[in-house]
Amino acid sequence: MSATRTHYDEHLGPVYVWMAGGIEAALARGEGEIRDLGLEAPATDYAVDLGAGFGMHAIPLARRGIPVLAIDACVPLLDELKRASEGLPIKALAGDLLDFRRHLEKTPRAILCMGDTLTHLPSRAEVERLFSEAAEALPEGGQLILSFRDYTRALSGAERFIPVRSDGERILTCFLEYGGERVTVHDLLHERDGAGWKQRVSAYEKLRLDPAWVVEALAARGFSPQRGAGLSGMVRIAARRG
Ligand SMILES: C[S@@+](CC[C@H](N)C(=O)[O-])C[C@H]1O[C@@H](n2cnc3c(N)ncnc32)[C@H](O)[C@@H]1O
User: Fold this and answer.
1) What percent of the chain has pLDDT over 90?
2) Residue closest by Cα to atom 2 of ligand 1
3) Cross-strand pairs, 197
């Protein structure tokens, strides 16, 4: 099992919805992004959400009547997605997002890979492979939509300690350690344990993807990428084929 997969299954998955501020608040943010992107049925008649998590974008899409294939490697997060999407047209699948074409039921009009999932891929070669697979899977006018963090500028000193969320029961802090092509993200989780606190630490690597490199790699595969601002300081790129 990869470090990322173990990290999500054992460390982040069980507290992810809490970290995102609770399911309703997170779905409201996802709904805002989907509205901004103008994804509506029937023009979008099938969508794929890669690294769907608990369904922050898959659920708002499905609430618009768009059938969604939601793929994620983390089973606890997919269980949350299934609980929150009862009755909606979502197929939730546990697997590697890079294998998405194997699971398509028809040609998708939109492929989403949002919320800093792209940087989880093991290398730039895998990112390029994803772009090539998406270019082959989408029809003319279909869109690949990405949102990810730009880690190219290395933070230094105390800036590398990022408070993510805290309440009376839990505190989650990230510590970033910069390497050449990657940044190691250490998640420090403190949870109340009687009168004291229990600390758990787990780490995984993310790619330091330069948005300009992403735009170029998409253009080289026949996409017309439009760069904009995503949620919480992320870069958002909507790339139309053709
Ligand atoms: C930062 S979360 C983002 C989740 C969701 N897109 C959102 O915006 O809330 C990244 C997700 O990608 C999943 N993931 C990372 N690498 C993956 C892979 N190779 N295949 C499938 N899922 C993956 C993780 O399990 C996690 O749920």
Assistant:
1) 94
2) 117
3) 192
- How far away, in angstroms, is 72 Cα from ligand 1 center? 6
| Tens-place pLDDT, residues 116-170 | 999 999 999 999 999 999 999 999 999 999 999 999 999 999 999 999 999 999 9
Measured from the CB, is residue 56 less than 6 Å from ligand 1?
yes
Q: What would the two tokens of residue 241 be? A: 């084929």
Atom 8 (ligand 1) nearest CA: 115
pLDDT in tens, 61-109: 999 999 999 999 999 999 999 999 999 999 999 999 999 999 999 999 9
Assess whether the C-beta atom of 23 lies below 6 angstroms from ligand 1. no
Q: Would the pLDDT of 1 be above 70?
A: no
Residue 116 CB–ligand 1 contact under 6 Å: yes
The string of DSSP codes covering 118-170 is GGGSSSHHHHHHHHHHHHHHSPTT-EEEEEE----SPP-GGGGEEEEEE-SSE
Q: Which amino acid is at 82?
A: K
Taken in order of first residue, the domains within the chain and their CATH numbers are 3-150+209-241 (3.40.50.150), 157-206 (2.20.25.110)
Shortest CA distance to 219 belongs to which of 192, 189, 240?
240
Helix axis angle for 211-219 and 124-137, nearest 10°, is 40
